[in-house]
Design goal:
The longest helix has 18 residues. The chain has a 7-stranded mixed β-sheet with strand order 1-2-5-6-7-8-9. It has a 5-stranded mixed β-sheet with strand order 10-11-12-13-14. A hairpin with a 2-residue loop joins strand 1 and strand 2. It is built from 12 helices and 21 strands. Helix 8 packs across helix 12. The chain is an alpha/beta fold and about 400 residues long. It has 2 domains: about 240 residues, Metallo-beta-lactamase, Chain A (4-Layer Sandwich); about 140 residues, Rossmann fold.
Length: about 400
Amino acid sequence: MRPVEIKPNIWSIAVNDRTTDLFEGLWPVTNEGVSYNSYIIKDEKSVLIDLTKDIFSEEFVDQIAKIVDLKTLDYVIVNHVEPDHTGALTRFREIAPNVTFIGTRQCINMMNDFYGMSENTMTVKDGDTLNLGKFNLKFLTAPMVHWPETMFTYLEEEQILFSCDAFGTFGCLDGITFDDEAGDNLPWYEKESLRYYSNIIASFSRNVLNAIEKAAAFPIQIIAPSHGLIWRKDPMRIVSLYKKFAEYAAGPTEPGVTILWGTMYRNTERAMEAVLQTITAEGVPVEVYNVADVHPSFILPSLWTKRGVLVACPTYERAMYPNMVHMLDIAEIKHVKNKVAGYFGSYAWSGGAQKVFEGYAEKLDWEVVGALEFIGMATEEDIQAIQQIAQQVAKKSKEG
Protein backbone atom coordinates (compact mmCIF):
# COMPACT_ATOMS: atom_id res chain seq x y z
CA MET A 1 0.00 0.00 0.00
CA ARG A 2 0.93 3.65 -0.30
CA PRO A 3 0.66 6.32 2.40
CA VAL A 4 -2.81 7.84 2.68
CA GLU A 5 -3.29 11.37 3.96
CA ILE A 6 -5.93 11.38 6.69
CA LYS A 7 -5.75 15.13 7.32
CA PRO A 8 -3.19 17.73 6.19
CA ASN A 9 0.24 16.57 7.43
CA ILE A 10 -1.19 13.36 8.94
CA TRP A 11 -0.78 10.06 7.11
CA SER A 12 -1.73 6.42 7.52
CA ILE A 13 1.02 3.90 6.80
CA ALA A 14 -0.64 0.49 6.45
CA VAL A 15 0.76 -2.91 5.54
CA ASN A 16 -1.55 -5.74 4.47
CA ASP A 17 -0.51 -9.15 5.79
CA ARG A 18 -1.76 -11.82 3.38
CA THR A 19 0.87 -14.42 4.28
CA THR A 20 0.26 -15.12 7.97
CA ASP A 21 -2.04 -18.08 8.55
CA LEU A 22 -2.43 -17.71 12.32
CA PHE A 23 -2.57 -14.29 13.95
CA GLU A 24 -0.76 -14.46 17.31
CA GLY A 25 0.08 -18.02 16.24
CA LEU A 26 -3.52 -18.93 17.17
CA TRP A 27 -6.29 -17.30 15.13
CA PRO A 28 -6.84 -18.12 11.43
CA VAL A 29 -6.55 -15.19 9.02
CA THR A 30 -5.52 -17.13 5.92
CA ASN A 31 -8.54 -15.94 3.95
CA GLU A 32 -9.20 -12.63 5.66
CA GLY A 33 -5.70 -11.30 6.25
CA VAL A 34 -4.98 -8.43 8.62
CA SER A 35 -3.57 -4.92 8.31
CA TYR A 36 -0.93 -3.30 10.51
CA ASN A 37 -1.60 0.43 10.67
CA SER A 38 0.89 3.09 11.69
CA TYR A 39 0.62 6.86 11.45
CA ILE A 40 2.88 9.83 10.71
CA ILE A 41 2.36 13.39 11.91
CA LYS A 42 4.61 15.93 10.23
CA ASP A 43 5.11 19.18 12.12
CA GLU A 44 8.03 21.17 13.54
CA LYS A 45 8.67 17.86 15.25
CA SER A 46 7.75 14.75 13.28
CA VAL A 47 6.36 11.64 14.91
CA LEU A 48 5.60 8.07 13.92
CA ILE A 49 2.86 6.33 15.89
CA ASP A 50 3.52 2.58 16.17
CA LEU A 51 5.60 0.35 13.92
CA THR A 52 4.82 -2.93 12.14
CA LYS A 53 5.60 -6.64 12.08
CA ASP A 54 9.24 -7.56 11.47
CA ILE A 55 8.73 -9.32 8.14
CA PHE A 56 7.34 -6.10 6.64
CA SER A 57 10.16 -3.83 7.86
CA GLU A 58 11.51 -2.87 4.44
CA GLU A 59 8.12 -2.18 2.89
CA PHE A 60 7.23 -0.16 5.97
CA VAL A 61 10.42 1.92 5.83
CA ASP A 62 9.90 2.59 2.13
CA GLN A 63 6.44 3.98 2.81
CA ILE A 64 7.66 6.25 5.58
CA ALA A 65 10.48 7.58 3.40
CA LYS A 66 7.86 8.89 0.96
CA ILE A 67 6.63 11.24 3.70
CA VAL A 68 9.57 12.14 5.88
CA ASP A 69 13.34 11.78 5.90
CA LEU A 70 13.94 9.12 8.52
CA LYS A 71 17.06 10.91 9.70
CA THR A 72 14.93 13.90 10.68
CA LEU A 73 12.19 11.92 12.44
CA ASP A 74 12.02 13.02 16.07
CA TYR A 75 9.75 10.53 17.85
CA VAL A 76 8.28 7.06 17.64
CA ILE A 77 5.29 6.60 19.92
CA VAL A 78 4.87 3.00 21.05
CA ASN A 79 1.26 2.55 22.13
CA HIS A 80 1.75 -1.20 22.57
CA VAL A 81 4.83 -3.45 22.55
CA GLU A 82 3.28 -6.60 21.05
CA PRO A 83 5.57 -7.63 18.15
CA ASP A 84 2.98 -7.16 15.41
CA HIS A 85 3.35 -3.45 16.27
CA THR A 86 7.05 -3.33 17.18
CA GLY A 87 8.72 -6.12 15.20
CA ALA A 88 10.35 -3.57 12.89
CA LEU A 89 11.93 -1.76 15.84
CA THR A 90 15.39 -3.27 15.50
CA ARG A 91 15.60 -2.43 11.80
CA PHE A 92 14.16 1.02 12.45
CA ARG A 93 16.83 1.85 15.03
CA GLU A 94 19.51 1.03 12.48
CA ILE A 95 18.05 3.52 10.01
CA ALA A 96 17.07 6.22 12.53
CA PRO A 97 19.46 5.79 15.48
CA ASN A 98 18.69 9.19 17.03
CA VAL A 99 14.92 8.91 17.19
CA THR A 100 13.33 9.01 20.65
CA PHE A 101 10.88 6.22 21.57
CA ILE A 102 7.95 7.27 23.74
CA GLY A 103 5.81 5.00 25.90
CA THR A 104 4.61 4.28 29.40
CA ARG A 105 7.17 3.16 31.95
CA GLN A 106 6.03 -0.43 31.57
CA CYS A 107 6.22 -0.06 27.79
CA ILE A 108 9.83 1.11 27.96
CA ASN A 109 10.70 -1.78 30.28
CA MET A 110 9.05 -4.27 27.94
CA MET A 111 10.88 -2.84 24.93
CA ASN A 112 14.10 -3.62 26.77
CA ASP A 113 12.81 -7.13 27.55
CA PHE A 114 11.84 -7.81 23.93
CA TYR A 115 14.57 -5.94 22.06
CA GLY A 116 17.33 -5.16 24.53
CA MET A 117 16.63 -1.47 24.11
CA SER A 118 16.98 1.06 26.93
CA GLU A 119 18.49 4.17 25.28
CA ASN A 120 16.80 7.13 23.57
CA THR A 121 13.50 6.64 25.36
CA MET A 122 10.97 8.96 26.99
CA THR A 123 8.47 7.85 29.61
CA VAL A 124 4.99 9.37 29.70
CA LYS A 125 2.15 9.10 32.18
CA ASP A 126 -1.61 9.29 31.79
CA GLY A 127 -2.60 12.79 30.72
CA ASP A 128 0.89 13.90 29.69
CA THR A 129 1.13 16.01 26.53
CA LEU A 130 3.70 16.51 23.81
CA ASN A 131 3.89 19.65 21.67
CA LEU A 132 5.00 19.11 18.08
CA GLY A 133 4.59 22.73 16.96
CA LYS A 134 1.13 23.23 15.51
CA PHE A 135 -0.12 19.96 16.94
CA ASN A 136 -0.40 18.70 20.52
CA LEU A 137 -0.60 15.06 21.54
CA LYS A 138 -2.15 13.73 24.74
CA PHE A 139 -1.36 10.28 26.11
CA LEU A 140 -4.15 8.22 27.68
CA THR A 141 -3.16 5.02 29.44
CA ALA A 142 -5.39 2.04 28.63
CA PRO A 143 -3.91 -0.81 30.68
CA MET A 144 -4.92 -4.35 29.73
CA VAL A 145 -6.47 -3.35 26.43
CA HIS A 146 -5.04 -5.84 25.97
CA TRP A 147 -1.52 -5.70 27.46
CA PRO A 148 -0.60 -3.82 30.65
CA GLU A 149 1.55 -1.15 28.94
CA THR A 150 -1.06 -0.11 26.34
CA MET A 151 -1.98 3.53 25.82
CA PHE A 152 -3.93 5.66 23.36
CA THR A 153 -2.52 8.77 21.68
CA TYR A 154 -4.93 11.64 21.07
CA LEU A 155 -4.28 14.45 18.59
CA GLU A 156 -6.07 17.42 20.13
CA GLU A 157 -6.34 19.80 17.15
CA GLU A 158 -7.78 17.24 14.73
CA GLN A 159 -9.56 15.17 17.40
CA ILE A 160 -8.03 11.89 16.22
CA LEU A 161 -7.73 8.94 18.61
CA PHE A 162 -4.89 6.57 17.72
CA SER A 163 -6.22 3.58 19.61
CA CYS A 164 -3.82 0.74 18.78
CA ASP A 165 -5.56 -2.65 19.24
CA ALA A 166 -8.77 -1.14 20.59
CA PHE A 167 -11.45 -0.73 17.89
CA GLY A 168 -9.50 -2.95 15.49
CA THR A 169 -10.73 -5.63 13.11
CA PHE A 170 -9.38 -8.57 11.19
CA GLY A 171 -9.27 -8.21 7.41
CA CYS A 172 -6.94 -6.65 4.88
CA LEU A 173 -7.63 -3.20 3.49
CA ASP A 174 -8.32 -4.03 -0.14
CA GLY A 175 -7.74 -0.69 -1.81
CA ILE A 176 -9.55 1.21 0.93
CA THR A 177 -8.60 2.94 4.17
CA PHE A 178 -11.77 4.45 5.67
CA ASP A 179 -15.17 3.21 6.81
CA ASP A 180 -16.95 5.35 4.21
CA GLU A 181 -14.98 3.60 1.46
CA ALA A 182 -16.04 0.09 2.52
CA GLY A 183 -19.48 0.28 0.90
CA ASP A 184 -21.29 -3.05 0.93
CA ASN A 185 -18.30 -4.64 2.68
CA LEU A 186 -18.77 -2.61 5.86
CA PRO A 187 -20.93 -5.32 7.53
CA TRP A 188 -18.13 -7.80 6.81
CA TYR A 189 -15.59 -5.62 8.61
CA GLU A 190 -18.03 -5.20 11.49
CA LYS A 191 -18.41 -8.98 11.69
CA GLU A 192 -14.63 -9.32 11.72
CA SER A 193 -14.49 -6.75 14.51
CA LEU A 194 -16.55 -9.15 16.65
CA ARG A 195 -14.27 -12.07 15.80
CA TYR A 196 -11.24 -9.91 16.54
CA TYR A 197 -12.78 -8.79 19.84
CA SER A 198 -13.81 -12.27 20.99
CA ASN A 199 -10.46 -13.77 19.96
CA ILE A 200 -8.10 -11.08 21.19
CA ILE A 201 -9.66 -8.71 23.73
CA ALA A 202 -12.67 -10.44 25.30
CA SER A 203 -10.83 -11.44 28.48
CA PHE A 204 -10.28 -7.76 29.27
CA SER A 205 -13.78 -6.40 28.73
CA ARG A 206 -13.91 -4.44 31.97
CA ASN A 207 -10.72 -2.65 30.93
CA VAL A 208 -12.24 -1.93 27.53
CA LEU A 209 -15.21 -0.23 29.17
CA ASN A 210 -12.86 1.80 31.38
CA ALA A 211 -10.89 2.92 28.32
CA ILE A 212 -14.05 3.86 26.43
CA GLU A 213 -15.20 5.93 29.39
CA LYS A 214 -11.81 7.69 29.56
CA ALA A 215 -11.82 8.45 25.83
CA ALA A 216 -15.40 9.77 26.02
CA ALA A 217 -14.07 12.87 27.79
CA PHE A 218 -12.58 14.02 24.48
CA PRO A 219 -14.31 14.96 21.22
CA ILE A 220 -13.42 12.40 18.56
CA GLN A 221 -13.69 12.95 14.82
CA ILE A 222 -11.57 9.98 13.72
CA ILE A 223 -10.75 6.59 15.27
CA ALA A 224 -7.43 5.33 13.90
CA PRO A 225 -6.71 1.79 15.15
CA SER A 226 -3.72 -0.43 14.43
CA HIS A 227 -5.76 -3.07 12.58
CA GLY A 228 -8.49 -2.56 10.01
CA LEU A 229 -10.49 0.45 8.89
CA ILE A 230 -9.97 4.02 9.99
CA TRP A 231 -13.36 5.33 11.13
CA ARG A 232 -13.99 8.91 9.97
CA LYS A 233 -17.59 8.98 8.72
CA ASP A 234 -19.02 7.42 11.88
CA PRO A 235 -16.26 6.91 14.47
CA MET A 236 -18.78 6.26 17.21
CA ARG A 237 -20.04 3.23 15.26
CA ILE A 238 -16.99 1.13 16.13
CA VAL A 239 -16.94 2.52 19.68
CA SER A 240 -20.57 1.50 20.19
CA LEU A 241 -19.86 -1.96 18.79
CA TYR A 242 -16.93 -2.46 21.16
CA LYS A 243 -19.00 -1.17 24.06
CA LYS A 244 -21.71 -3.70 23.24
CA PHE A 245 -19.18 -6.52 22.91
CA ALA A 246 -17.59 -5.58 26.24
CA GLU A 247 -20.93 -5.40 28.03
CA TYR A 248 -21.69 -8.98 26.98
CA ALA A 249 -18.98 -10.12 29.42
CA ALA A 250 -21.13 -9.48 32.48
CA GLY A 251 -24.46 -8.16 31.21
CA PRO A 252 -27.32 -9.41 29.06
CA THR A 253 -26.46 -11.19 25.83
CA GLU A 254 -28.57 -12.06 22.80
CA PRO A 255 -31.30 -14.71 22.68
CA GLY A 256 -30.06 -17.78 20.89
CA VAL A 257 -28.26 -21.07 21.29
CA THR A 258 -24.76 -22.09 20.25
CA ILE A 259 -24.51 -25.86 19.76
CA LEU A 260 -21.03 -27.28 20.17
CA TRP A 261 -20.91 -30.86 19.01
CA GLY A 262 -18.48 -33.63 18.28
CA THR A 263 -18.97 -37.30 17.58
CA MET A 264 -16.98 -40.49 17.08
CA TYR A 265 -19.50 -42.97 15.64
CA ARG A 266 -22.44 -40.60 15.02
CA ASN A 267 -24.48 -41.64 18.07
CA THR A 268 -24.17 -38.17 19.60
CA GLU A 269 -24.62 -36.56 16.19
CA ARG A 270 -27.93 -38.34 15.60
CA ALA A 271 -29.18 -37.19 18.99
CA MET A 272 -28.08 -33.63 18.22
CA GLU A 273 -30.00 -33.63 14.92
CA ALA A 274 -33.11 -34.75 16.79
CA VAL A 275 -33.19 -31.63 18.99
CA LEU A 276 -32.63 -28.85 16.45
CA GLN A 277 -36.30 -28.35 15.71
CA THR A 278 -36.99 -28.14 19.43
CA ILE A 279 -34.76 -25.07 19.63
CA THR A 280 -36.01 -23.35 16.49
CA ALA A 281 -39.60 -23.94 17.66
CA GLU A 282 -38.81 -21.54 20.52
CA GLY A 283 -38.13 -18.82 17.97
CA VAL A 284 -34.48 -18.24 18.79
CA PRO A 285 -31.45 -18.32 16.48
CA VAL A 286 -29.25 -21.41 16.61
CA GLU A 287 -25.71 -21.84 15.34
CA VAL A 288 -24.20 -25.33 15.09
CA TYR A 289 -20.43 -26.00 15.19
CA ASN A 290 -18.58 -29.27 14.83
CA VAL A 291 -15.63 -28.71 17.16
CA ALA A 292 -13.56 -31.25 15.22
CA ASP A 293 -13.82 -29.20 12.01
CA VAL A 294 -14.33 -25.54 12.99
CA HIS A 295 -11.54 -23.55 14.58
CA PRO A 296 -12.43 -21.94 17.95
CA SER A 297 -11.74 -18.54 16.39
CA PHE A 298 -14.96 -18.81 14.37
CA ILE A 299 -16.97 -20.29 17.25
CA LEU A 300 -16.10 -17.68 19.87
CA PRO A 301 -18.23 -14.88 18.34
CA SER A 302 -21.35 -17.03 18.69
CA LEU A 303 -20.46 -18.15 22.21
CA TRP A 304 -19.69 -14.58 23.22
CA THR A 305 -22.95 -13.09 21.99
CA LYS A 306 -25.56 -15.82 22.57
CA ARG A 307 -27.05 -16.63 25.95
CA GLY A 308 -27.58 -20.38 25.43
CA VAL A 309 -24.98 -23.13 25.01
CA LEU A 310 -25.70 -26.78 24.26
CA VAL A 311 -22.70 -29.12 24.46
CA ALA A 312 -23.07 -32.45 22.67
CA CYS A 313 -20.16 -34.87 22.64
CA PRO A 314 -19.26 -38.41 23.69
CA THR A 315 -17.15 -39.70 26.52
CA TYR A 316 -13.60 -40.50 25.50
CA GLU A 317 -11.65 -42.83 27.80
CA ARG A 318 -13.71 -41.85 30.87
CA ALA A 319 -13.23 -38.18 30.06
CA MET A 320 -14.49 -35.79 27.38
CA TYR A 321 -14.04 -35.85 23.62
CA PRO A 322 -10.67 -34.03 23.27
CA ASN A 323 -11.75 -31.49 20.64
CA MET A 324 -14.52 -30.36 22.96
CA VAL A 325 -12.07 -30.07 25.83
CA HIS A 326 -9.98 -27.74 23.68
CA MET A 327 -12.99 -25.60 22.80
CA LEU A 328 -14.09 -25.32 26.42
CA ASP A 329 -10.53 -24.51 27.47
CA ILE A 330 -10.57 -21.59 25.03
CA ALA A 331 -13.97 -20.51 26.38
CA GLU A 332 -12.52 -20.52 29.88
CA ILE A 333 -9.45 -18.51 28.84
CA LYS A 334 -11.72 -15.94 27.18
CA HIS A 335 -14.07 -15.78 30.19
CA VAL A 336 -17.20 -16.85 28.31
CA LYS A 337 -19.34 -16.65 31.44
CA ASN A 338 -22.95 -16.39 32.57
CA LYS A 339 -24.57 -18.72 30.06
CA VAL A 340 -27.51 -21.09 30.34
CA ALA A 341 -26.30 -24.51 29.26
CA GLY A 342 -27.05 -28.16 28.81
CA TYR A 343 -25.12 -31.31 27.92
CA PHE A 344 -25.75 -34.68 26.36
CA GLY A 345 -23.59 -37.37 24.85
CA SER A 346 -23.03 -41.05 24.22
CA TYR A 347 -20.69 -43.46 25.97
CA ALA A 348 -19.71 -47.10 25.49
CA TRP A 349 -18.60 -48.85 28.67
CA SER A 350 -18.17 -45.90 31.06
CA GLY A 351 -19.41 -42.34 31.23
CA GLY A 352 -17.29 -39.33 32.16
CA ALA A 353 -17.89 -36.44 29.76
CA GLN A 354 -20.83 -35.11 31.76
CA LYS A 355 -18.68 -34.72 34.84
CA VAL A 356 -16.07 -32.81 32.82
CA PHE A 357 -18.78 -30.57 31.38
CA GLU A 358 -20.14 -29.82 34.86
CA GLY A 359 -16.63 -28.82 35.95
CA TYR A 360 -16.36 -26.29 33.15
CA ALA A 361 -19.87 -25.01 33.83
CA GLU A 362 -19.01 -24.39 37.47
CA LYS A 363 -15.83 -22.47 36.59
CA LEU A 364 -17.65 -20.36 34.00
CA ASP A 365 -20.77 -19.67 36.08
CA TRP A 366 -22.99 -21.39 33.54
CA GLU A 367 -26.51 -22.22 34.70
CA VAL A 368 -26.96 -25.91 33.84
CA VAL A 369 -30.59 -26.77 33.10
CA GLY A 370 -29.94 -30.45 32.41
CA ALA A 371 -27.41 -33.07 31.38
CA LEU A 372 -27.70 -36.62 30.11
CA GLU A 373 -25.27 -39.38 29.24
CA PHE A 374 -26.70 -42.33 27.34
CA ILE A 375 -25.12 -45.65 26.47
CA GLY A 376 -24.61 -46.45 22.80
CA MET A 377 -27.44 -45.18 20.63
CA ALA A 378 -30.00 -42.83 22.17
CA THR A 379 -33.36 -44.43 22.85
CA GLU A 380 -36.62 -42.64 22.21
CA GLU A 381 -36.78 -41.95 25.93
CA ASP A 382 -33.28 -40.43 25.79
CA ILE A 383 -34.27 -38.24 22.84
CA GLN A 384 -37.28 -36.91 24.70
CA ALA A 385 -35.11 -36.07 27.72
CA ILE A 386 -32.55 -34.32 25.51
CA GLN A 387 -35.32 -32.36 23.78
CA GLN A 388 -36.46 -31.12 27.16
CA ILE A 389 -32.93 -29.97 27.97
CA ALA A 390 -32.66 -28.19 24.62
CA GLN A 391 -36.06 -26.56 25.07
CA GLN A 392 -35.06 -25.20 28.49
CA VAL A 393 -31.80 -23.82 27.13
CA ALA A 394 -33.69 -22.11 24.29
CA LYS A 395 -36.40 -20.69 26.57
CA LYS A 396 -33.97 -19.38 29.13
CA SER A 397 -31.78 -17.85 26.46
CA LYS A 398 -34.62 -15.42 25.84
CA GLU A 399 -34.43 -14.18 29.42
CA GLY A 400 -31.22 -12.22 28.67
